[in-house]
What we know:
Elements: H1 9-44, H2 54-61, H3 72-87
Amino acid sequence: MxxxxxxxxxxRAKLQRMIDRTAKLNEKYHNAQKDLxxxxxxxxxxxxxxxxxxxxxDALFGGCGAGSSISAESFDKEMLACIERERQ
Length: 88
């Protein structure tokens, strides 16, 4: 590890801020995901992962990288289509 310089106080402080921010946002993400999944279980009887709703998983949970957004109408349409597909 001789080629990697020691952390300066400034770099150490910046690293700690990034670590703390990542941990805090990760907790918020997991809480938001749990709330959404709980709502889906209450409404649809299943969560997006249960019916392999790829569009929802990709958009909201970063299944293919960074997440994006999805409308409530698109969400509902995909959940209903996936639930119907699972029943067949």
